[in-house]
């Protein structure tokens, strides 16, 4: 629409220039313009001003607005689906997806979660649990943790050290919202023990659960569908809040 308006403006200016050239043909008339021409000039100026204001409003209306999640600014910029007139754009933090996986199922689900978030137009970062740092979580406003349980209620191998060190301290994560998908098998005594530990640790750190923990018993498809719906609802809810 703006391009059409611009083209119309240029065309009318060229027409006006051509008209002026014809108008001033011959000898110059040095006397002040007659009243009628003052009115024509004033009308033209007012019409031009109205056109400028209208174009400016169109530009503002078409400008994508960026919404911050809970006011936490991130390093990546991204636009949301909503639009707002006259509000300054603000950065939106990427969503963090974290996994702890022994035989690959949680990692596969984490990748699917990333794909889902990307289809929802969110920038996403995927990390194994041991690469998560306190600063990273402090810079994140929404994180999704997918954690399976191995051994007899143990963390997956790659997450053992993180469990034994980092999860024994209390990080300051009051700005973080999170959700946990705990993977396990109810035939084990310590069902979903590690996912539950991750959830409890995040609560101790002051993070707020964006949704209740979902436990997946032996790849239960209903629980997995609930997770997908929960991720979608969480992210879409965030975009409304600012
Ligand atoms: C050796 C082994 C030990 C397991 N121990 C537990 C357990 O203690 N508690 C539990 O809920 N699930 C347990 N599980 C089930 C896994 O957590 C479940 O199959 C999960 O989906 C595996 O995810 P992953 O592929 O990401 O490791 C165990 C599975 C295996 C193979």
TrEMBL record:
<dbReference type="InterPro" id="IPR008254">
    <property type="entry name" value="Flavodoxin/NO_synth"/>
</dbReference>
<keyword id="KW-0472">Membrane</keyword>
<feature type="transmembrane region" description="Helical">
    <location>
        <begin position="38"/>
        <end position="56"/>
    </location>
</feature>
<protein>
    <submittedName>
        <fullName>Flavodoxin domain-containing protein</fullName>
    </submittedName>
</protein>
<dbReference type="InterPro" id="IPR029039">
    <property type="entry name" value="Flavoprotein-like_sf"/>
</dbReference>
<keyword id="KW-0812">Transmembrane</keyword>
<dbReference type="Pfam" id="PF00258">
    <property type="entry name" value="Flavodoxin_1"/>
</dbReference>
<keyword id="KW-1133">Transmembrane helix</keyword>
<dbReference type="InterPro" id="IPR001094">
    <property type="entry name" value="Flavdoxin-like"/>
</dbReference>
<keyword id="KW-0285">Flavoprotein</keyword>
<feature type="domain" description="Flavodoxin-like">
    <location>
        <begin position="95"/>
        <end position="232"/>
    </location>
</feature>
């Amino acid at each position: 629409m703006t391009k059409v308006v611009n083209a119309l403006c240029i065309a009318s200016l060229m027409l006006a220039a051509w008209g002026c050239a014809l108008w001033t043909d011959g000898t110059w008339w040095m006397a002040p313009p007659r009243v009628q021409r003052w009115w024509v000039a004033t009308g033209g100026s007012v019409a031009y001003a109205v056109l400028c204001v209208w174009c400016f409003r169109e530009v503002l209306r078409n400008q994508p607005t960026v919404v911050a999640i809970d006011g936490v600014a991130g390093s990546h910029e991204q636009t949301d689906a909503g639009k707002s007139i006259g509000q300054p754009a603000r950065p939106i933090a990427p969503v963090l997806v974290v996994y702890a996986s022994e035989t690959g199922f949680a990692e596969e689900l984490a990748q699917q979660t990333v794909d889902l978030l990307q289809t929802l137009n969110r920038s996403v970062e995927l990390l194994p649990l041991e690469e998560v740092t306190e600063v990273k979580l402090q810079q994140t406003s929404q994180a999704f943790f997918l954690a399976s349980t191995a051994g007899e209620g143990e963390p997956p191998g790659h997450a053992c050290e993180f469990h034994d060190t980092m999860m024994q301290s209390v990080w300051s994560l009051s700005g973080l919202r999170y959700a946990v998908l705990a993977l396990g098998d109810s035939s084990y005594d310590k069902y979903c023990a590690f996912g539950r530990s991750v959830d409890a640790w995040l609560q101790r750190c002051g993070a707020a659960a964006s949704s209740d923990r979902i436990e997946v018993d032996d790849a239960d498809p209903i629980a997995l569908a609930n997770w997908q719906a929960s991720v979608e609802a969480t992210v879409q809810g965030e975009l409304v809040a600012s």
